[in-house]
Design brief:
It comes from Auriscalpium vulgare. This is Class III ADH enzyme. The chain is of the alpha/beta class. Strands 3, 5, 6, 9, 10, 17 and 18 form a seven-stranded mixed β-sheet that branches. A six-stranded parallel β-sheet has the order 13-12-11-14-15-16, sandwiched between helices. Helix 11 links the parallel strand 17 and strand 18. Helix 4 runs parallel beside helix 5 and helix 7 packs parallel to helix 8. The radius of gyration is 20 Å and the shape is globular. Bound molecules: NADPH dihydro-nicotinamide-adenine-dinucleotide phosphate (NDP), the ligand N[C@@H](CCC(=O)N[C@@H](CSC=O)C(=O)NCC(=O)O)C(=O)O and zinc ion (2 copies). The site of the ligand N[C@@H](CCC(=O)N[C@@H](CSC=O)C(=O)NCC(=O)O)C(=O)O has 13 residues, from loops.
Length: about 375
C-alpha cells in the first residue's frame, strides 16, 4: 500500500477552463479511487497533434463532445498509486498505460470478436465522468471533468479498471507512454487489416499516426508504400518510416487531383489507403485513390464538428470499401503488453517519433510546437 492510499491527493494538473483557452497549471484535488477504479501517478504524457491532435481538437472547441473545465491528455504512462475495491487486474506499483478505449472483456462489443470498441464506460467517459457519473477531480470543491476516461495531463489521475493495462516495467515510460494512442493507432490500422502483405498502400498525412501506418506497412511487407503529405519536410520522415514513394499534392500540375494522380501511377489505384489527416476532402481522395473492385480505404483522422464525408455512391457500387478505426482496432488490455514487448525487441519504433520534450510547467509549448509543424510527438515530463 502506498502512504497516500485512501487520501485526497493535492497535485498539479493542466486544466482547460473553456474552449480555445490555453491550459493552466493548477493545484487540484484527486479523490481516492472508488470500487473498480485505479489511481495512477502519471510520469509522462504525450501530446497526440504532436502531443496527440485529439487533445488540441477538444481544447480548440472543435469536438462536439467537448465539455469544460476539463483535464485533457490521453497518451500517458505512470505507476499505480492505489486501487479501489474489487480491482484485480493491476496492483500498486505496476507500470501502466491508461486506455481511452476500454476493454471490459464482458460487454456485447468485447465478446463479439468483431471490434475493439467497448461499451462498458463509453457513455460516462463521453460526459467527462467516472462510471458512477461523478468526477474524482476538483479545485476547492468545484468538480473538474475527466477526458477520454484517462486525463493524463495531471500528476495523478483516476481511471476505471477496464481503462488501464500493466506493461513490462523494463520499458521506459517516457517512450512507451506514446503507445497510449498515436503509434498504436497507426500500427493497428495497418497490421490488423488482413491482406496488406504484397499489396499497394497509400497513407495520407505523415504525422505520428501516418508514420506509424507507414512503419506497419513496411513491417507486414506491403509491395509499394506511397506517403502523401502537403508538408515537403515530411518526405524525409516518411521514407525513414518505410515509404517507398512520397507525393506532395501541392506539387502536382495545376488542376491534377491527388486521387487521379495516384490512380494513374498505380495502374488503377491502391489496394489499401489510410487517412491520417482528419480532413474530410482528404478522406474522399483516399477512397477515390483505391482500386476499383477491391480497394479498401480506412479513415483514422478525427474530423471537426459538423464536417461530413461524401463521394459518388458509384465509388462504392464499384467495389471500393470505406471503413474506419479507433485506436487501430487494438484491444488495449489484451494486446498492448505485447506491443510493448515488440518495442523492447526493436520490432516497433517508438523513440523515433519524439521530436520535443517539455517540462510540465511548459505544457502549452507542446501545443505551440504542434502548431509550428516541425513536431511529430512531444513528451511531457509530469514530475
Ligand atoms: N481514430 C483514432 O483512433 C485516432 C485518430 N487520430 C487522429 O488522426 C489524425 C492524425 O493525427 P496525428 O498524426 O497526431 O496528426 P498530425 O497533425 O501530427 O499529422 C497530420 C499530417 O497530415 C498533414 N496534412 C495536413 N493536411 C493535409 C492534406 N490536405 N493532405 C495531406 N497531408 C496533410 C499534416 O501536415 P502539416 O505538418 O503541414 O500540418 C501532418 O503532417 C488526427 O485527426 C487525430 O485526431 C489520432 C489518434 C487516434
Ligand atoms: N469526441 C469526438 C470523437 C473523437 C474520436 O473519434 N476519438 C477516437 C480516438 S482519437 C484519439 O486520438 C476514438 O477512439 N473514437 C471512438 C470513440 O468511441 O470515441 C467526436 O465526437 O467527434
Ligand atoms: Zn490520440
Ligand atoms: Zn467491453
Amino acid at each position: 500500500m502506498s502512504d497516500t492510499a485512501g487520501q485526497v491527493i493535492t497535485c498539479k494538473a493542466a486544466v482547460c477552463w473553456g474552449a480555445g483557452e490555453p491550459l493552466k497549471v493548477e493545484d487540484i484535488q484527486v479523490a481516492p479511487p472508488e470500487a473498480h477504479e485505479v489511481r495512477i501517478k502519471i510520469l509522462y504524457t504525450g501530446r497526440c497533434a504532436r502531443i496527440c491532435h485529439t487533445d488540441e481538437y477538444t481544447r480548440s472547441g472543435a469536438d462536439p463532445e467537448g465539455a469544460f473545465p476539463v483535464i485533457l491528455g490521453h497518451e500517458g504512462g505512470g505507476i499505480v498509486e492505489s486501487v479501489g475495491e474489487g480491482v484485480d487486474s493491476v496492483k500498486v506499483g505496476d507500470h501502466v498505460i491508461p486506455l481511452y478505449t476500454a476493454e471490459c472483456k464482458k460487454c456485447k462489443f468485447c465478446t463479439s470478436g468483431k471490434t475493439n470498441l467497448c461499451s462498458s464506460v463509453r457513455a460516462t467517459q463521453g460526459q467527462g465522468l467516472m462510471p458512477d457519473k461523478t468526477s474524482r477531480f476538483s479545485i476547492n470543491g468545484k468538480p473538474i471533468l475527466h477526458f477520454m476516461g484517462v486525463s493524463t495531463f495531471s500528476q495523478y489521475t483516476v481511471v476505471a479498471d477496464v481503462s488501464v493495462v500493466a506493461v513490462n516495467p523494463k520499458a521506459p515510460l517516457e517512450k512507451v507512454c506514446l503507445l497510449g494512442c498515436g503509434i498504436t493507432t497507426g500500427w493497428g490500422a495497418v497490421a490488423k487489416q488482413p491482406g496488406v502483405k504484397d499489396s499497394t498502400v497509400a497513407v495520407f498525412g505523415c504525422g505520428c499516426v501516418g508514420l506509424s501506418c507507414l512503419n506497419a506497412a513496411q513491417l507486414v511487407k506491403a509491395s509499394r508504400i506511397i506517403a502523401v503529405d502537403t508538408n515537403p519536410a515530411k518526405e524525409e520522415w516518411a521514407r525513414k518510416f518505410g515509404a517507398t514513394e512520397f507525393v506532395n499534392p501541392k506539387q502536382l500540375p495545376q488542376g491534377t487531383r491527388i486521387q487521379d494522380h495516384l490512380v494513374e501511377i498505380t495502374d488503377g489505384g491502391l489496394d489499401f489507403t489510410f487517412d491520417a489527416t482528419g480532413n474530410v476532402d482528404v478522406m474522399r481522395a483516399a477512397l477515390e485513390a483505391c482500386h476499383k473492385g477491391w480497394g479498401v480505404s480506412t479513415i483514422i483522422g478525427v474530423a471537426a464538428a459538423g464536417k461530413e464525408i461524401s463521394t459518388r455512391p458509384f465509388q462504392l457500387v464499384t467495389g471500393r470499401v470505406w471503413r474506419g478505426t479507433a485506436f487501430g482496432g487494438v484491444k488495449g488490455r489484451t494486446e498492448l503488453p505485447g506491443i510493448v514487448e515488440d518495442y523492447l525487441k526493436g520490432a516497433v519504433k517508438v523513440d523515433e517519433y519524439i521530436t520535443h520534450e517539455f517540462k510540465f510547467e511548459d505544457i502549452n509549448k507542446g501545443f505551440d510546437a504542434m502548431h509550428a509543424g516541425d513536431c511529430v510527438r512531444a513528451v511531457v515530463d509530469m514530475s
